[in-house]
Design goal:
With about 150 residues, the protein is of the alpha+beta class. Helices cover about 20% and strands about 40% of the residues. It has helices spanning about 1-15, 125-140; strands spanning about 20-25, 25-30, 50-55, 60-65, 70, 75, 80-90, 90-105, 115-125. Strand 7 (about 80-90) and strand 8 form a beta hairpin.
């Protein structure tokens, strides 16, 4: 009985120690933040992007599935590389800057191989944060952020 109580208590503490996640699949486009000093590299990261879909969202980070872990010599995870993420949520595209923290290869065969990337949100505008938080709380059925125009009425 005491063990069950301790297990339940530690589970509650673990739930509150990290942001709750919302499983949701939305189109996402990941672009590399332009690198200011490239050193000996000859390629530029401008215009490089990957398309994929989110697998879960939280207030502090996102997880997304893409077909590759790198484009040219630019990796999605490592060296605190900043990525620009565009997530198409119902009614709005949310832009944020994220840093890839970890990845895992999924898929059984090379032809179906994909990667799940876990990324931390490091920057998001206040308007996008508000829309993102409303989506996390209510899904696509919640109240719309104030200040939007619908049918000419504010």
């Amino acid at each position: 009985m005491i063990r069950a109580l301790v297990t339940k208590l530690t589970g509650m503490i673990a739930e509150r120690s990290h942001a709750s996640r919302k499983k949701y699949q939305a189109p996402v486009r990941i672009r590399f933040e332009p690198v200011r000093t490239t050193g000996n590299l000859t390629a530029s990261s401008d215009g490089l992007y990957l398309s994929g879909e989110t697998s879960d969202l939280s207030g502090t980070g996102i997880a997304f599935v893409v077909s590759a872990i790198r484009v040219k010599e630019y990796y999605l995870v490592g060296q605190d590389r900043i990525l620009n993420a565009e997530i198409d949520l119902p009614g709005r595209t949310v832009l944020m800057k994220v840093i890839g923290r970890r990845y895992e290869r999924i898929g059984v065969h090379l032809s179906t191989e994909k990667y799940v990337v876990g990324a931390e949100i490091v920057e998001i505008s206040s308007a996008d944060r508000k829309a993102y938080d409303i989506f996390l709380q209510y899904g696509g059925k919640g109240p719309k952020p104030t200040g939007t125009m619908e049918l000419g009425i504010d």
